[in-house]
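Batch job 17 of 40 flagged for manual review because the log was empty.
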Amino acid sequence: SKDSRITVWHIGMFSAFLQLWHKNRFNNPVQITRRKVLELSKIGNNVTYHKCIRELEMFGYINYAPSYNPKTGSSIFLKTMVTLKL
């Protein structure tokens, strides 16, 4: 709530990441696919997806390692609250 840069789209995407992280038993990195993140976050287009993921990384909430192979998902590393120092 203290980060004025964060929008509802960032929150939706981060919530999707948290769901996938939970499914991965809280282990990093988490394998993601654009289709699954769009579905979970309720984001409706690829432009917003790419903008939000880039900004979440730039803001320091995640580390993102894209995969250009359609058969393997990209990887994200969720930073813990200790790492974020909120």
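Reviewer: the log was empty due to a logging misconfiguration, but the result itself is present. The longest strand covers residues 74-78. Unflagging and moving on to job 18.
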